[in-house]
Amino acid sequence: MQSSKIYGLVGYPLGHSFSPLMHNAAFGKLNISGEYRLFSKQPEELESFLLRMDDENIWGLNVTIPYKETILSFNQIELDNSAPYAKEIQAINTIVKKGESLKGFNTDVAGFLRHLNKLNFNPINKRVAILGAGGAGKAVAYAVAKKGISQIAIFDIDKDKAESVSLMLRVLFPKLDISIVDEIEQLDMINKDLLINATPIGLTSEDPCLIEEGMLHEDLFVYDLIYNPSPTKLLSLAKNKGLRCSDGLGMLVYQGAFSFIYFTGTLVPYAKIVEVMWGAIDRELGNK
Description:
The chain is α/β, with parallel strands linked by helices and 288 residues long.
């Protein structure tokens, strides 16, 4: 009897992830053979792990911090022609084995936009500040630019990363007002409509809050991609001020459902997969 195909999440660290919970729920509920695992790999382990995918019966992977960009240097990964987001932003979060090759996709963009829509936030003509210019920062910056924001300001402690995102946006969206700042205080939050945290700062209770209370204003929407723990210090600050805000749990589910379809090729409707994944998470959170 052939063992179930293995899928999983590769990154470092991974202790916070809900991905196995929701993907395994989908495999079980939808009667699709498969198992989803966590693969916590340090940078020096990544290439050898990818080379062993066949031996380990791994058919697909999600990719998270810190590998969404660097994993593209692995020669066996091809950016699928049906996945323009991945080609345009040069960052992937999904890998699928197809024949003898590995195809790379980006479901973060679609997942983030779907969540913003569910939250009734329309990016058109809005002004956005983004913390973080890694793979996730690239995806959300591209997403809101594609939906018609008028202005974007980006901060990353690694200014080269921020400049790289800026260059991508200037090429793809030449009319967009883009600025790269040296300090968080220069994001000019008083004149922004949306603040997005796309950094890993907030994953541990010891992490500081990157934003001071005085930077927030009553019309600002605060979105933190971190969903566990939740609320982060940033979201707690926003909630205490009565601001509209959200963690990234919705983005996780919506992008995860897209990834599940890429993994399995299932014809099960997207909405059904989302329903199953949300149900698994709701039960988990309800038991805590």
